[in-house]
Specification:
Largest sheet: 3 strands, mixed
Order of helices and strands: HEHEEEEE
Shape: elongated
CATH class: Alpha Beta
Number of strands: 6
Number of domains: 1
Helix content: 25-40%
Structural class: alpha+beta
CATH architecture: 2-Layer Sandwich
Strand order of the largest sheet: 2-1-6
Bound molecules: zinc ion
CATH topology: hypothetical protein PF0899 fold
Number of helices: 2
Radius of gyration: 17 Å
Strand content: 35-45%
Length: 111
Amino acid sequence: MSLAMNIVEMAVAAASREGAVKINEVELVVGELSGVLIDSLEFCLEAAARDTTAGTAVFKIIPVKGRGNCRNCDASFELDSLVSCCPHCGEYTVEVIGGKELNLQAITIDE
Ligand SMILES: [Zn+2]
């Protein structure tokens, strides 16, 4: 919930810097390994946005697949868990290089 409030605050602050009276759309990039449940995030965002300039905004969440890189054989591949072995060499030397992000990507506003 506090995560959703932070995102709404960021969007509202960015919009007011642009002189916006209303936010139409907020676009977020959420990594599938970030531990965030997209459905519940959506719900919390709508609740957190109530009575702000983002109150009627559409929250568009773009999921990003996890990516891993093997330090043993240098292979890159898709990851669906934070703890996995390399599909190429079988070693547990996988570094997570993507999929943990949670970024405010873009906002669309009415001036
Ligand atoms: Zn490997």
